[in-house]
Amino acid sequence: MEKKKVLLPIDITKDNNKEFAFAIEFAKRTNSEILILAAYNFPYGYLLSAEQHKKAIEEEKEKLYLSILELKGYYQCWFNQWKPFKYDKIRYIVKEGSIEEAITSTIKEEKNIILLLHQFYYKKNGVSDATIVELFSSKISILALPGLKDFFETIPNLNSEIFESQKESILDKMLRDSEIYNMPEDINLFRRDILLAS
Question: Which of 25, 97, 148, 195 is spaced 20 to 30 A from 121 at the CA atom?
Answer without folding.
Answer: 25
